[in-house]
Design a protein that fits this description.
The complex is a heterotrimer of chains A (259), B (169) and C (420). Chain A is 39% helix and 5% strand. Chain A has 259 residues and is mainly α. The longest helix of chain A has 30 residues. Chain B is an alpha+beta fold. Chain B is elongated, with a radius of gyration of 26 Å. With 420 residues, chain C is mainly α. Chain C is built from 18 helices and 2 strands. The chains are: A mainly alpha (259), B alpha+beta (169), C mainly alpha (420). Chains in contact: A-B, A-C, B-C.
């Protein structure tokens, strides 16, 4: 049993080592409390709604979020706008549809069932409008970066002047947390850039936190359901394991194995 | 003594089996439910149709849940015709008032109740629809009058969300 | 197999059993005499069967929603994660289930290495096991390609490119594998088909594996044969069924923790980026369970020799029953072998670690030393040990050392105590 638990410990220890690459990246990310971390983590609804506002007003002009639908904004576990609010949000966007009976494509106001409208028609159009760099789709961005939410949160606040000796080309900026430190996105956030509808003070740090929280939900919309189910599953397994353990002891008591 | 031991042992095993069965059920359910319509399909379960451009005597066909829906703005003659039919004459007796909430608008699934073909508009002996597959004739209320179809064309759940918009489903 | 006739209780049972002896089979499995001294390292066979069934069921269900086309694969996986009822749960079970499957198979293999389960008369069980392991790696490799992320695409590119190392026909084989001039849609669709097929091949081999096992019966911690079934064994049901059940539940708790709380920790972030043939990730790494072989592959500077080294590392295991010359099965009674066993474990863990690191500098040096040592263990140390090692005296029977009355009680108790 001791050896067994030693091996389990070893496995967990190695797992926490994070087998991922980039062992060279030793930058300490900026830390903040994320309400969704931990066994009982939940999303802060207000933060999600503010984050959606930041995404829409700041990021969505370049970054698509193609796997999200407007109806997701009203679903449980997310920003939980009311269905009417989500409908209004959808209707504020023009969605391509068609062909109509003349064979033409047309635009119409968005519906709940529509996916988020993309800023560019395709990757090439996005690249050409952004100096050759593709602003990545943000649907799963948080899961697509080592460092996850901490990385994105830090990067948004990580713009500074390049250290002496580093020259940057046109359209390239220095960021403390970006892999390789050079990024083609200019600093987007400044204090008061967005006027939050709930009146929260929109500092750069606040907006970074809110939009990152929103991105986390966008990447993992079922996070809360997953945590809840996980708790029930593990409690159930512990109960069943206990019952089976005692059943086992009772059955094996018929066999003379003890010294 | 042996009695008591048996009872305790039975309870333990029974409890284990029962708790195990609950778990087995909990595991099986997602495997079955995943085949049910997913969220993106359910989002298209209802559709809103703008009928502002549909003049009297005109029919439009929209796609709803993968099937055609006929939306016809009936003329006064058609409404009168539909209302004056005697129920005894119908294979599937249904009053026109029960089929069209608003008598001017007929909203029904454009699927022949015989074997599923799409009937043709403004055809047939009853001024309504005619199904070319096996010769079913429907009247101005979409009711079967002649031919092999057993029932009237189905009326889906619908409502007027405003004067110009019908929400189906 | 057995010489006693089983008589079904019901008339229908008898009628059916006369035509297809399923009830006889069920009775055999229920009564199957299992050594009573098996420890928890023996529960992993049952755990592996659970893993195989889990992967097949979740895989089948995922296949109802997944689209095996380069333009839609990534999208279909996101559709599963977001829209399909419980899709996120089934996908995470399947992805983490693969890791749990390999965790269990490594424990199962290392159990065999420690207790000499591969030795005569169980060589065929062992070899079938190696084939199952190879098929598992093929299935896992192809399964990882299906989401069509960056790691899917580039991992497929790197590994399929290895075949070009074969002289003369190499390039042709690679083009044939790809169905084109690079990894692309034809590669994806055929990988999906084969990924779907292989688990059923594994299922068949598992049946053979268990059948071959039931001929001599299980090995056991002291590695000596059963003398008296009535004293040394217990019927499989209920004794082993309940013990395997308990171990399986413990395993499921670990599994549940990964699925519900850290479902992406064993994966790689780059696989959430859609495959791009024009952009290579900074560090291409396979999933953790393939890392030791990846390390061996990269430690050899020559492409062909690297491939040969990697494949040899697996095939050498098939020769194990003949490489290990010791007459004693269990490491419990082989103190010197035991030391080398733990060094091998450490060696494999080190190989796994450097497999995840860039193949340069100190990491490369360590990988080379660890690779050399791996082959040294099997090709030199094991054969020599068999002749040179002074083994401990064996107990008379399985039950003797446990019940007392044997001069070897102290030795056996000592070893058994450590295991607990």
């Amino acid at each position: 049993m001791k050896k067994f638990s030693r091996i389990i410990f070893l496995i967990i220890f190695i797992t926490c080592f994070q087998y991922n690459s980039n062992a060279a990246e030793k930058v300490e990310y900026l830390k903040t409390d994320w309400s969704f971390k931990g066994l009982f983590g939940k999303f802060d609804r207000a933060s999600l709604q503010r984050g959606y506002q930041v995404y829409t007003e700041v990021c969505s002009s370049c970054h698509s979020m193609k796997y999200l639908s407007y109806r997701n904004l009203a679903e449980k576990g997310g920003p939980e706008f009311t269905e009417a609010e989500a409908k209004a949000i959808a209707a504020s966007f023009e969605v391509k549809d068609g062909p109509n009976s003349d064979g033409d494509m047309f635009t119409r106001p968005g519906k709940l069932s529509d996916k988020f409208v993309m800023p560019y028609d395709n990757v090439k159009a996005a690249q050409s409008a952004n100096g050759g760099a593709y602003p990545p789709d943000m649907s799963v961005l948080v899961k697509a970066r080592v460092g996850g939410v901490d990385y994105i949160y830090s990067l948004l606040q990580g713009y500074e002047d390049p250290p002496i000796g580093i020259t940057l080309d046109d359209g390239v900026y220095y960021n403390k947390f970006m892999y390789g430190n050079k990024i083609k996105m200019a600093n987007q956030l400044s204090d008061g850039l967005v006027e939050y509808s709930d009146g929260t003070n929109a500092t750069v740090e606040q907006m970074s936190k809110d939009v990152t929280t929103f991105l986390m939900w966008a990447a993992e919309p079922h996070l809360e359901a997953r945590h809840k189910m996980g708790f029930k599953a593990i409690v159930y397994l512990i109960i069943l394991t206990t019952l089976v353990y005692f059943s086992m002891k009772r059955i094996w008591s018929r066999v003379k194995t003890e010294v | 003594m042996a009695e008591k031991k048996t009872n305790r042992r039975d309870f333990l095993f029974t409890a284990t089996y029962a708790v195990g069965a609950v778990g087995a059920g909990a595991v099986v359910w997602p495997m079955i439910d995943q085949m049910n319509p997913d969220a993106s399909v359910k989002a298209l379960a209802s559709t809103e149709v703008d009928v502002s451009s549909v003049g009297p005597g005109k029919t439009i066909t929209v796609l709803w849940r993968g099937k055609p829906v006929f939306i016809r703005r009936r003329t006064d003659e058609e409404i009168e015709e539909a209302r004056s039919v005697k129920l005894e004459d119908l294979k599937h007796p249904e009053k026109d008032e029960d089929r069209a909430q608003n008598p001017e608008w007929l909203v029904m699934l454009g699927v022949c109740t015989h074997l599923g073909c799409v009937p043709l508009d403004q055809k047939g002996d009853y001024n309504g629809w005619f199904c070319p597959c096996h010769g079913s004739h429907y009247d101005t209320s979409g009711r079967i009058r002649k031919g092999p179809a057993p029932t009237n064309m189905e009326i889906p759940k619908y409502e007027f969300v405003n004067a110009n918009t019908i929400k189906i489903g | 197999m057995s010489d006693h006739e089983y008589n079904p209780k019901s008339k229908f049972g008898k009628w059916f059993n006369d035509r297809l002896p399923l009830l006889t089979l069920a009775n055999h499995l229920t009564d199957y005499p299992t050594p009573k001294n098996l420890n928890y390292w023996w529960t992993f066979g049952g755990i592996l069967t659970f893993c195989l069934i889990t992967q097949i069921v979740t895989g089948l269900v995922l296949a109802m929603h997944y689209i095996a086309h380069a333009d839609m694969a990534f999208d279909s996986v996101e559709h599963i994660m977001r829209d399909v009822n419980y899709g996120w749960l089934i996908r995470y079970i399947h992805a983490n289930g693969a890791s749990m499957f390999f965790l269990a198979v490594y424990i199962h293999i290392f159990r065999s290495l420690f207790y000499g389960s591969y030795k005569a008369p169980r060589e065929i069980i062992w070899i079938i096991g190696i084939i199952i392991y190879l098929l598992m790696m093929a299935a896992a490799f192809m399964g990882y390609v299906l989401p069509w992320g960056q790691m899917s695409f580039w991992g497929a590119t790197v590994i399929t490119n290895l075949f070009s190392a074969i002289p003369l026909v190499g390039e042709g084989i690679v083009t044939w594998l790809w169905g084109g001039y690079s990894v692309d849609n034809p590669t994806l669709t055929r990988f999906f088909t084969l990924h779907y097929l292989i688990p059923f091949l594994i299922l068949g081999l598992v049946v053979l594996h268990i059948w071959a096992l039931h001929v001599p019966g299980n090995n056991n911690p002291v590695g000596i044969d059963i003398k008296k079934p009535s004293k040394d064994t217990v019927p499989f049901h209920p004794y082993i069924v309940i013990k395997d059940g308990f171990a399986l539940l413990m395993f499921m708790i670990v599994f549940a923790f990964f699925v519900f709380y850290t479902p992406n920790i064993l994966g790689h972030a780059d696989n959430y980026i859609e495959a791009d043939p024009l952009v290579t990730p900074a560090h291409i790494v396979p999933e953790w369970y393939l890392l030791p072989f990846y390390a061996i592959l990269r430690s050899v500077p020559d492409k062909l020799l690297g491939v040969i080294a990697m494949l040899s590392a697996i095939f050498i295991l098939a020769a194990l029953p003949w490489l290990d010359t010791s007459k004693i099965r269990s490491a419990v009674f082989r103190p010197l072998y035991r030391q080398f066993y733990w060094i091998l474990v450490a060696d494999v863990l080190i190989l796994g670690y450097v497999g995840a690191m860039p193949a340069e500098g100190l990491y490369l040096l360590i990988a080379r030393v660890a690779t050399a040592y791996y082959f040294l263990h099997f090709l030199v140390i094991l054969p020599v040990l068999g002749f040179k090692e002074k083994t401990l005296p064996l107990p008379i029977s399985i039950t003797e050392p446990i019940l007392g009355g044997s001069p070897n009680l102290a030795a056996a108790k000592n070893r058994e105590g450590l295991k607990e």
